[in-house]
């Protein structure tokens, strides 16, 4: 049956999450548009507004972002342009046209000083340019009176069609006997396909405001890497190391597990454990 919903997925042509959203929306019989950067100038609000009008878009999904966390420390202006200016502009278009805007943000808005999962109400304190720019993007949109705005904070994505942490670990593990991976950063690994499906569940419930959304459970990068290597049947030893043994330009939160109870309460769905999702991803990859 044809679904009347019509989605514009920014980042849907090449992005990690964007491509998963396009396939999940299409499976649900949405009419989906995913123009690449050469087809639509995302910083031209008139061009976006006219696209929305011509194609009768009901929902804009913004997965475009500056996501190179370390490089953002040196490309601050570009990071803020993509992570703050773009959502602000999209927010203005969506409000004018009275359509939904679904925007994604990150666990890196937190400083990681807690040791229990972060709720959407917890205090933010980003440690990096990337985290700051994403938080300012959220703040430029958040408005309690706007009931067609959905902001989803997610974390540690892996999924098909684009390289990601798990894919890189599996490539390295094929040719190496050992890998050293950071064990003192703990977060919520999330499968893009699950995140896209759960996003649709929020939309079905007309959710608005700020939600946390990830697979269930938690892991360190080292645990995620070990599980991926084991699951792929590779014989590579994964050694835990500390962040100080693997210096990076951007400071990451040591703990950024997301509390998804508000999603569970609204939809009645408990996201499946990341280990299960990881198996699906790896078997699909190998299949
Ligand atoms: N990846 C993670 O682990 C993670 C974790 C937490 C939150 N998030 C959030 O989840 C969302 C999706 O992340 P992702 O990892 O899927 O992103 P991604 O794979 O890096 O995709 C970013 C998309 O943005 C497009 N883009 C970048 N700069 C552009 C520009 N100047 N003009 C037009 N398009 C541009 C890219 O197109 P090109 O291919 O043409 O460059 C690509 O399609 C983001 O909001 C991110 O902050 C991600």
Structural features, described:
Helix content is 39%, strand content 16%. The chain is of the alpha/beta class and 287 residues long. The chain has one domain: NAD(P)-binding Rossmann-like Domain (Rossmann fold). Strands 2-1-3-4-5-10 form a 6-stranded parallel β-sheet, with helices on both faces. It has a two-stranded parallel sheet with strand order 6-9. It has a two-stranded parallel sheet with strand order 7-12. β3, α3 and β4 form a beta-alpha-beta unit. Residues 11, 14-18, 37, 42, 63-65, 67, 82, 104, 106, 134, 154-157, 162 line the site of NADP nicotinamide-adenine-dinucleotide phosphate.
Short description:
The chain has helices at about 15-25, 45-55, 75-95, 130-140, 165-175, 190-205, 220-230, 260-265, 275-285; strands at about 5-10, 30-35, 60, 100-105, 150-155, 155-160, 180, 185, 190, 210, 220, 235-240. The protein is an alpha/beta fold and about 290 residues long.
